[in-house]
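protien #1 (seq + structre)
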Amino acid sequence: MSIKPESGPNLTPRAAPPDVRLGFGQQVGYARVSSLDQNPDRQLDGVAVDRTFTDSASGRSTGRPQLEAMLAFVRDGDTVVVHSMDRLARNLDDLRALVRTLTARGVRVQFVKEQLTFTGEDTALATLLLSVMGAFAEFGLIQGPRSPCSATAARGTPTR
């Protein structure tokens, strides 16, 4: 015995409006580059994300429209994936506030470079790691090693 679906005007499937998101658990990427000649694609290279928001602004700039768009977009169950802490926030206070805001809404925050993920159910140790690693990121202490030549060139000191 087969059951045929009823037909009628109320049972006709309709496409969802384009702004309606279906399901939970999207991987949402956020990237920020400081200058136009930097490539934001390198920040999340090899990381599977459903959607990426990219700002081109210095870390000190308060105008980050794509960050605001990403904050408005994410929902409970999503994960925000960022290359590193210094790409998400301007300073330690900003970092803690953003992570706290997102995790309070049920959004996980994952930092690829630091290999840390924050869920809102974090331990005291996780909170400490966020503060310590965030402070290192703010002062540029977790970036790759710089050669002495590039440091002296930046100061305008001639090298030997």
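ok now protien #2
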Amino acid sequence: MPPLVTPEVIWWALVPLLVLSAGGFLLLTIASLVRRLPDALPQAWTVITGLVVLVATIPMWDRVQSDGPRSFLGGTVAVDGSTVLVTAILAIAVVATALLARPYLEREDLPGVELYVLLLLSAAGGVVMASADDLIVLFLGPEILSIAAYVMAALHLRRLESHDAPLKSFTPRASAPASIRRAGDFVRRGGGAASGWAARAGPGHEIGVAGPGRGYQPAPDATHLLLAGDETALSAIIAIAAAVPPPTVLRVLVAVPELAVHHIGDGLETAMRVVRRALGLAWPLLYGAPVVPQQERSD
């Protein structure tokens, strides 16, 4: 029987990734098992982990300068001068962020462990991305980095910006396949990426168009369908309702809070008229009610 051939592993080149990953998972495990950690422990743990990685890059740099770039793990991972440089920069960023984060966390009364765990795992994703020598690994690195970064961005639950995604997608109310024109509705209420864009939008501004997507497909054997949403979901409700086959009994519930009426004013009534015409319903328009009851449609 021929011997099993395994890919070459250069362990010294994997030290930064292993230290960052192990540091993040160990900190998370300890915080899960211990009822209350000392306030300074997560910060000190993260700083020490970052310093260990930074120190490890020194012999890595010497090794790369003397032996040259190396590729291992079946040609999926590489180590060269740029890899070591990016790893050192990430380690410095981890240490600096950990030192600056504690006063902010205390001032905002935020949990003190999650941020440090996410910081270490995000840096580990950056190391994977910097050492990628294969398209799959190159894709894996930004995914690890970005998932942790997204959670960190949403960590402050009391801030509206933490709940708001930087990229928004909207369903057009109407579109013509043979034309580049699209009709859509944007609801402005308070802050946020979409509300801010709608307030600044004007002729000549660019907007991305993608699709057509698969959309929502009701079950073919469904006899009743309930659509519910607030005023921001009107375009999607119209698009879904237009595709419902005639035997299906359709009920639509649209929430219209008083805050929306205050911000939108006559625009809300216009939007509701559009929905009435699209579905052929004579809906009552009740301002201030938590839910606008709708009539059933059975075509």
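The two ends are 71 Å apart (CA to CA).
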